[in-house]
Every structure is written in structure tokens, then in C-alpha cells.
Amino acid sequence: MKRLLIILPAIIAMGLLAACGGTAAPPPEPTAAAAESAAVAEPTAAPAADSPEIAALKGEVAANYAAIVYAGYEDAATTAVALQAALQAFVANPTPETHQAAKDAWLAAREPYGQTEVFRFYGGPIDDEDGPEGLINAWPLDESYVDYVEGAPEAGIINNAAEYPTIDAELLASLNEAGAEENISAGYHAIEFLLWGQDLSADSNGGRQYTDYTTAANADRRGAYLLAAADLLVANLQGLVAEWAPDADNYRAAFLAQDANESIRQMLTGMGVLSKSELAGERMFVAYDNQDQEDEHSCFSDNTHRDIITNAQGIYNALTGSYTRSDGSTISGASLLALLDATDPALAGQMRTLAEAALAQVNAIPTPFDQAIVVAESRPAVLAAVNALQDQGDALAQVAAALGLQINTDLPE
Question: What pLDDT shows up at residue 15?
Fold first, then answer.
């Protein structure tokens, strides 16, 4: 979110708020490996002068990273356009088949976007002061802010034609996070809720029917909301593509024009914060600790396991300098691991091992995630993944220190 996903206090309001949120819990105690790497990553002096070869390699690492960022956002925008088309087809002709096709398009669109979240947390165009992150991927979401919920059939923007006679992208942007951080009106998760509905079951996802767009009250307004949300999502993602496009006067040009050490510091910051604090902490350990499906990221569709895996994959992509695009092609080049191999081969080997372990651990979490956090046999796998991601985050701080840099892996205020 724009204000970086502060977990909500205990939910009130007579059962109307069933958002994907929860009360923050303290993170698990760091493992021995995490404590050791955190101790190493104390503030360091400015980087020593590089040899010409290392200086050139750092520039190549930054340039390859920029190419991967551009490709990632381009894939996210392309799949969002496909989602938009599927939603248009569904709203024009709501049937069980077009409803399922729209859900499938939403799930497909989440795959590339999840891998872009590693490009956050350092003031880039996604989440600087004017960044659109809160309009793209904000959560937790108070369903009753958008549409009806169990026990409140007239709740939400959709059912309030008197106050909001016209539903369009401008309205949704103006209402997003208005009055409270959980008042989410836009982005992937607003669309997710309108496709799946509330998840009121312990062992399945939301049960919204396609008839919500045919015979239900305010069916036309619900369809208009879906289309407006899709328009806004596409526009914001295309804006990020423009900021990272090559050969333009944009953020990418500034990123590559600055000292390469600063670019690498930003890269490591995004990776470290996502791994240790946002993913391991906010998105996984809180849900694990509370044992509540309402704390999972994509709670309506039960797609949280893919959110976790794609986030972890994004970190691995940034570390290894390689990204497999939605069409199967690959962007690959100079990497942080290659830089570390050239400066501290032993640490490079340790970092590679930790990164591979973290990716393996998140892939080993049983699905669906909302059951993995409550079933006794599955919970250890969730905690093992949390610890592996925390270890990886601390190791990334150690990598920064070895390169003469300093990063903070805590979530920004």
C-alpha cells in the first residue's frame, strides 16, 4: 500500500468488516543464521574505490536490473490488459463461463505482478510520494466499503447510487483509502472481491455467483465498477512501464545516471525489505500467528500461496539477474551474484544457498495458505518459510555491508 501495509487493529463494526487484515504480531525470533548476518551488517564506511573492472560490472548490474524491471512491468501491464478484456466480455455477457474466464485472467495477471514487488521500498516510481502502489495492490480491503457483505445487503459504493451516481475510474481513485486505510476501492484486490466475493468458507474461496451481474440488485453498477477498476489498474501499470522504458527522459534514465553504488543500494533495499519484513512478516507471520484466513493477502480467491511464491521469485530474479517473461523469453545479464562472486566468492556461495533455500521453502508450503496456517501438520512448513525469508533478508544486508553499503530491511515508516 502507499503507506506500506500497516496491519489493522482488531476488527469491529458489527461484522461488516471482514477484510484481509489482522492485528500485527511480533515477528518470530531470528534464527542463529539471521542473527549472525544481522550482526555483520552494521553501518559501514563509504565504498572503497573500485577497480575499473568492478566499476564497470556495477554499471552492468544496474543496467540489467533496469531491463528486468521494465520487462516485469510490461508483462504486468500486458496481462492486466488481458484481464480488462476478460472483464469486458464478462460484463457484456455474464455467464458461468465468462465469469470463470475473468477469474482465470485475474489469476494470470497476478503472476508477473507478484514478481515486481521487489522493485518497491526505495522510493522508485511504484511507491514514491506520488506512486500508484496503493491504487494497484493495496490490502487489507474492507469489503463493505465496495459492495454488499453478509448481513449488510445495501453496503458499499456500488449500492449507494444517491451519493455516487456515476462509477468511473476517477471516482474509484478519489475514494481509495479515503477516511481509513482499509477503505480500498481500487486495484487487484477490489477486482478480486468483485469476482469471488467474501470468503466465508474454511476450505474454499469466495462464492460470488455470476448472477450478481444479471438479476441481483445494482447488477449494472457492479459491472461498471469492475470495468472502471480495470481501466484504472491498466493506466497505473502502463505508467510504470513508461517510467522504466529505455531511451526516455524518465526514472530509468535517472537510475542509471546516478552512482552505481546507489543503484545497487536501492536494489538490495527492495530485496531485503520485501524478504525480511513485508513478505516474511506482514504477509506470512501475522497470518501464521493469528491463524486467521482474513489475514492472508488474496483471501477472496485463495491465491495467497502464489502471491508468496511470486514475491520470493522476484527476489531471486533480482539477485541472479534473470527474469523469465510471460511469453517464456528470458532477460538475463550481469547480476548481484556475479558482482559478489568477483568481490567475495565465499559470501556469494552463502547468499546463493540461502536464496535457493528460501525459494524452495515457499514452494513447499501446503495449499491453500489459509489452511496451512491452521492445520497442525502444515504450520511448520509456513514457519520454516518465514525463517528462510528472514535469513535471506539478513544475508542481503550482509551483502550490502560487504560491498561497502548500508541498507535497512525494516519497513519504511
Answer: 38
Q: Sort residue 156 into left (φ over 0), alpha (ψ -120 to 50) or beta.
A: left
Using one digit for the tens of pLDDT, what is the confidence trace for 187-209?
A: 999 999 999 999 888 778 999 99
| Rounded CA separation 79/299 (Å) | 21
Write down the pTM of the prediction: 0.89
Angstrom distance (rounded) from CA 229 to CA 252: 27
For 206-259, what is each residue's pLDDT tens digit?
A: 999 999 999 999 999 999 999 999 999 999 999 999 999 999 999 999 999 999
Q: What does the alpha-carbon distance between residue 13 and residue 237 come to, in Å, rounded to a whole number?
A: 34
CB 357 within 8 A of CB 104: no
pLDDT tens column, 278-291: 999 999 999 999 99
Instruction: Give how far the C-alpha of residue 352 lies from the chain's centroid of Cα atoms, to the nearest Å.
Output: 23
Written as nine digits, the cell of 144 is 463493505
Cell numbers for 340, please give them.
559478489
- Give the separation between CA 245 and CA 11, rounded to whole angstroms: 42
Residues with Cβ within 8 Å of 258's Cβ and at least 6 positions away in sequence, in order, are none
Amino acid at 304: T
Q: How far is CA 329 from CA 68, 98, 203, in A?
A: 12, 29, 36
Tell me the torsion sign for CA atoms 304, 305, 308, 314.
Answer: negative
- Amino acid at site 124: G
Which residue type is seen at 11? I
- Nine cell digits for residue 344: 567475495
d(CA 340, CA 130): 34
How do residues 36-92 score in pLDDT, each as one tens digit? 333 333 434 456 688 999 999 999 999 999 999 999 999 999 999 999 999 999 999
Interval 360-378 mean pLDDT: 96
